[in-house]
Amino acid sequence: MVFGLTLVRKLSSTTLLAIPSATAESEPTEPPTKAKAKKRKRDDVAEEPSQAKKPPADASNEKAPPPPPFNKTPPNQVDEEEVQPTTIRGRLERHADTNGIRHEQLEDIYHVLAGMQKNLCERQPEFSRHVSVRFAVEQFLIVPMKKDRTLVDGTGFLPHAAAREWREWHEKNITYPEFLHPTNKLPGEEIEETGAEKEEAESESKAFDQSLVCMPKLHLKRTPEEQAAHRERKRQKKQQKRREATADDDNDDGPSYNDIDAIQAELEEQRFRERMSMAFADDERLDSLEAQFNEFVHVPKRWGGDSARPVYDDDGDFMKLDPRYMDDEEYAEWIRAGMYRNTKKHGVARQRKLPWRAQEKAAKEESRRLERQAEEQRQQRRRNRDIRRRELARQEYESRWKELLSLPPANLHFDDIPWPIAAPRLSVTVEDLTLEAVSLFLFSEETTKKDKLRETYLRFHPDKFESRLMKLVKSGEQEKVRLGMGQVVRILNDLMKQGDG
């Protein structure tokens, strides 16, 4: 028990020495529920002792620069009254007289640091023999503790980079007195121990070391940066697997190996192709032998018939004869035929191509004739369609004039006047009234040119048009209607002059 109390005091003194620099920087993001409950209880019970005068901090920590931040978020400042003092003995004696809350806090600190050392021992087995929890933690992971015994960033351990920065800052700015070394005891702590107490302390030390070895592994919480990096690595690994699977896939997949019929059909097809290739090889071999033995055709005279000279067709069989078995006359004829073929080979080829060229020429002529016939049919259909459209436009033109003369409406617009053109759209302008448009609309095969011009001229005569229709036109459209009427009258006069000429 003495050894345990001594170790707890050393651990608490070590933790509290690192508290001023840590608590001055930031507050915990979300302390544990147990720590919150103990903090409320401590505030209610130990309110009067907290008002007592606190001893000054260690001189070695007064001018220390601020430690580097653990994360990107700016740390919250902590009131100096909440910082724990560095003189652990006076603090323990003062709290021991009032209540035992502080002892529970020190035990909790001991368990937290023991868990840290267990995790360190699993990662670094060479430190499993260290008895001092403070020494192992401070040498490889400086974790400043706050008043509620939570870490600065709210996690079980700091990231490696942050731990390295805190360790460098701690070694540079924090110094411990000699009596706080793990191998020494606190001043005034020389207590005479009997043999039984020493054995009990040694057994407790061994049990403590065994408990550290048997302690379960701590599951550490990732920081936001580590969590984001972990997700990015998983995403990249998944994309790499997808790309590899896509690269290995074949676009033309064969039949499934579970389909026995498909596999058998594929094997049969392969065997058939092998047999066909072997048959083609045999045919090529036989053809080469036949060409070798039958390069020249020789028919002996005793088998040639009664005639003295054999009769050959014009397909070149005569040139295939073997000259070794010819007489002088046959050999001379064979030479003359070969020379004629060599000198007149272009003419011979042209004679052979004449029937083919005649057929090709006849096919081209027939194709051109069919194209001309199809084009004439398309033009005829287009002309018939235009004629029907003009006839419908003329009928509508006549009906609109009858309606306009029988029941003249008021406030006429320019488009309400039936102009003598086949308008492609509903809206008509003065520019649409041209000589070609008017003549194409008025003249047809059924009516004579002169009668149609006279009828149209009477309708658009300036005097009659002014007296009958101009008063019905809207005042804003009258000038435009007069322009259209004048344009139609001039076109009609030109058409009449052309007819008279």
From TrEMBL:
| InterPro entries registered for this protein in UniProt | NFKBIL1 (IPR038753)
| Compartments reported by the entry | Nucleus
RNA-binding keyword on record = no
Compositional bias (Basic residues)? 231-241
* UniProt biased composition (Basic and acidic residues): 195-207, 358-379
Q: Name one GO cellular component term.
A: nucleus
UniProt keyword terms in alphabetical order: ANK repeat, Nucleus, Phosphoprotein, Repeat, Signal
Q: State the residue spans of region: Disordered.
A: 14-96, 180-208, 221-258, 351-386
Stretch forming the signal peptide = 1-24
Q: Does the keyword Phosphoprotein apply?
A: yes
Which GO biological process annotations does it have?
A: negative regulation of canonical NF-kappaB signal transduction
Q: What PANTHER family does this protein map onto?
A: I-KAPPA-B-LIKE PROTEIN IKBL, NF-KAPPA-B INHIBITOR-LIKE PROTEIN 1
- Could you identify this protein by its name? J domain-containing protein
